[in-house]
């Protein structure tokens, strides 16, 4: 099940010279309930690429969304991405569960939370 989502984030950097991952502003991570080193699925709205990697926490309130290492080949600065985090739940946990959805603007500032 979807546990949380960061909706329509803007890629601010693409760093091929890093070993891998996606760097996400720590404030956005906290609101979305995502953790450093957690696996995420990323969908690039601009080119249709979908890929998995893990999270690195970026500087709080920086607006940073950086594709690192091989993921840098999946998008460029300015691309819009949706970042999904999934979790396994048993039936009793799913009954009333609602995922955290964080919407950000073009500067990766939180504009709405569900």
Key terms:
9 strands, globular, Barwin-like endoglucanases, mainly beta, 10% helix
CATH topology: Barwin-like endoglucanases
Order of helices and strands: EEEHEEEEHEE
How would you sum up the global shape?
Answer: globular
CATH architecture assignment: Beta Barrel
Low confidence ranges: none
Specify the helix fraction band.
under 10%
Question: Tell me, what is the CATH class?
Answer: Mainly Beta
Strand order, largest beta sheet: 2-6-3-5-4-7-1-8-9
The number of E-state strands comes to: 9
As an assembly, this protein is: single chain
Largest sheet: 9 strands, mixed
**N-C termini distance:** 16 Å
The count of helical stretches stands at 2
Number of domains: 1
Task: Give the strand content.
Answer: over 45%
What is the radius of gyration computed over CA atoms, rounded to a whole number of angstroms? 14 Å
The structure class reads mainly beta
Mean pLDDT: 95
């Amino acid at each position: 099940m979807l546990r949380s989502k960061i909706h329509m984030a803007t890629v601010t950097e693409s760093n091929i010279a890093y070993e891998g991952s996606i760097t996400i502003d720590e404030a956005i991570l906290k609101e979305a309930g995502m953790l450093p080193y957690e696996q995420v699925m990323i969908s690039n709205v601009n080119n249709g690429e979908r890929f998995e990697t893990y999270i690195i926490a970026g500087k709080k309130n920086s607006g940073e969304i950086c594709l690192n290492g091989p993921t840098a080949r999946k998008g460029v600065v300015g691309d819009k991405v949706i970042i999904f985090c999934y979790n396994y739940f048993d039936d009793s946990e799913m009954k009333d569960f609602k995922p955290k959805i964080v919407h950000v603007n073009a500067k990766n500032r939180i504009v709405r939370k569900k």
